[in-house]
Amino acid sequence: MWTGLLYFGDCCRLVRIPRTLLAQMLNLGCAYYLAVMLWKGFMVSTNCESPVFIVQSGGDLRLHRGDIFFLTGSDSFRAGDEVVYQVPGREISIAHRVANVHEKPDGTLALLTKGDDNGVDDRGLYLQGQLFLTRPEIVGLVVAYLPYLGILVLMLNDYLCLKCWLFLSTAFACLIGRGSWKSFVVLSLADCVGFSVT
């Protein structure tokens, strides 16, 4: 009960002094744009459009729902490399190993992928008539992964009401001066992450 009165008092103070409200709103905007700049900087440093992916469903024995992949943009691939790819027209990205690498006469690479626990290659997942993946379909090369740490981000995306409540309550707490800007930056960064299926 007392905390509600404190928040009400803080809100009244902000309304009475519009300059304070404006300053807090600018701070909130700066925190959001800090998260965007961090994400864009991460994209530039890894040369990858989506440098972080979270596994949505694990069909592989060694990868599980919530595992976080860190990707880098690469133009050279070897058999055995794990890549995340996205077939045009499909919403979800897939993380599988490169089974074969073929170099075409013009110097471009053609990749054939296969899941570790699958008996056959991924040609059934490609577009009809497509035999290999080309570089534009490869999102990135997996360079590291952290197990299970992405489960919280998946929960936020599965329960949109929880995500909205967390954003709004964190923004409100920051506006009235009782919240941490760091938590708002972390929530904003979590909203940038991509998802893949193994």
TrEMBL record:
Domain of life: Eukaryota
UniProtKB keywords: Membrane, Transmembrane, Transmembrane helix
Annotated transmembrane regions: 21-39, 138-157, 164-181
Principal localisation: endoplasmic reticulum
Transmembrane found in the keyword field: yes
Organism per entry: Symbiodinium necroappetens
InterPro entries registered for this protein in UniProt: Peptidase_S26B
Signal peptide stretch: none
Membrane topology of this protein: Single-pass type II membrane protein
GO cellular component: signal peptidase complex
Job of this protein: Catalytic component of the signal peptidase complex (SPC) which catalyzes the cleavage of N-terminal signal sequences from nascent proteins as they are translocated into the lumen of the endoplasmic reticulum. Specifically cleaves N-terminal signal peptides that contain a hydrophobic alpha-helix (h-region) shorter than 18-20 amino acids.
Residue ranges of coiled coil: none
GO molecular function: peptidase activity
The protein, known as: Signal peptidase complex catalytic subunit SEC11
Compartment(s): Endoplasmic reticulum membrane
One GO process term, biological-process aspect: signal peptide processing
